[in-house]
Predict the 3D structure of the following.
Amino acid sequence: MVAGALVAGPMAVSAVAAPSRTSTSGTSAATGGTGPAVDRTVGLSDFLGLVRRGDVASATIGSADHTVTGSAVSGGRLVHYTVAYPPGYEGRLTEDLLAGHVSVVAAPGSSGASDLAYLLPLLAAPVLLMLLLGARRRRDPGQSGKRGGFPHSAANPAAFAPGRAEEAEVPTTRFADVAGIDEAVDELTGLVDFLADTERYEAAGVEMPHGYLLVGPPGTGKTLLARALAGEAGVPFFAMGASEFVESYVGVGAARVRTLFDRARTAGKSIVFIDELDAIGRTRSTHSVPGNEERETTLNQLLVEMDGFVKSSIIVLAATNRPDVLDSALLRPGRFDQQITVPAPDRRGRARILELYLRRRNVEEVDTEALSRRTAGFTGADLANLVNTAALLAVREGSLQITERHLDEALTTVALGPARKSAVVLERDRRITAWHEAGHALAGLWLPDAEDPISVSIIPRGPAGGVTWFPDPDQLFLSRKQALAQLAVAMGGRVGEELLLGEDFTQGAAQDFKVATDLARRMVTEYGMGSLGPGYVAPEETHLGVLAEKVHQATDDLLRQALETTRSLLTPARATVARAVEALLEEETLERDDLARICQEAPVTGSGGSSHASVAA
Ligand code: ADP
Ligand code: MG
Ligand code: ZN
């Protein structure tokens, strides 16, 4: 999408020129040349020889007439070369030109759009490359949105020229812009000192590792950390997404890797950041698979570049969520031999991140501790998005201040996905959903060892008719009572349906049973909490044989017992459950406190520290 928009028009074509080295399409201006420009027609192999020698500064590929024109400075004068190439050779040609650091431009052919369209993918590569590498960032990383470190546009065309150190960008991001992942920050702090004082380290004979793998789920701040490291050390930051290395045209990825590292080398001390490393770094196949070739040449190039690094002050960071699939060659000493975990933040981490983002805005007093409990499972990016959504809601209301209410509303949207309010839900379905969800929610509220629900909703979201949203405790140990309570809460949906429909309940509890059965089986086979007593049963032993039957029986006992627990809890309180159901049908979403108020006469229990939200649908 971005690529299409960038290369579709003549604007984009002129944008790839490197003004400092030559003219846009090789027509007039000379680079320090004294004599008049000379035109020459040469053979393709001669021309590529010049490219390899680094003599050619820019080239224009004319797809209509299958010629490439290039400009080179030779003997103090500017020479324009015109070279014919065989049809269909554009891909290889682009690759060779890029490898020689030539600024490549496509000339829109006279036959118009179709020829240009043919070239678009080829063009997209260099244009994107130069945009990504050269564009200056002016915005604060906190406002940069989903794409993190990758700017989409650039104002300064000079920044496109490859290998120009003075164009390198030193981020304004600091460690102070990162919150809730202190351990990862601590690990990188040592590198700031190294980058600031490389000479001292060298004098002392200390060799710093050069390759760091940042491992963690999307949105946890890996890109942010890499930028902050560069910002703190005051060194340039060169970044690329590995999935963008991998295009379908052979050689482009490898050329991009080379260019990226060339730029870093020219800059001297710097940070190179490769996002989504697994896109190119997966284990190489032993036999050739079509489509893999490109990825593997790209990966090989990366390995070559990393090996050339031993004594330099370039630090390479790469981000991935799948270290397990990476080719082992990437992880060898001297390459990405350091791993830094960047986890989704825990409750305290979430509170710190919320504070960071709320501090920057006009906010009415907000209880960030409470909000952090209600945002279990959120990443830093989710939390930034939450605050931004709340700010939007406030602005839409014409309010200058974000209030607790805006955050509540934003949370409902962000956490549970945009509501499908328009979906036509039959009244019967709504009613069944309300009983099902009320069953989960009240089981959670009333069972002493269960967590209170955060909220319960019958607005359909995604595939689910409704959801009850529970926190999971931020604790290391799951006690037997807590495990039993979790099973009972999982049964709440079915019991709720029974209260409405008797024996004619629906399939709506299918997912609940899956979750409950998983837990019950673990209680039996791993935790020693079932009738089998202490001991471990390997998964393969649960398939066949006497032991398998015993496991099945013990699991079944736990599940039936849980169903009974919840039945005996909710059935006598049917009238109260019905009140919660009516409120749900009316309000569609209830927070924990609403629910507790509606069901006042019943005991209120549980509390919620949380790290991962669980959703009972
Ligand atoms: P990742 O690279 O791990 O996918 P990003 O660094 O791209 O995550 O995060 C996207 C955005 O989310 C960041 O620019 C920042 O606004 C916000 N963010 C993510 N994690 C954090 C964090 N730990 N502290 C502060 N902001 C964060
Ligand atoms: Mg990122
Ligand atoms: Zn359910």
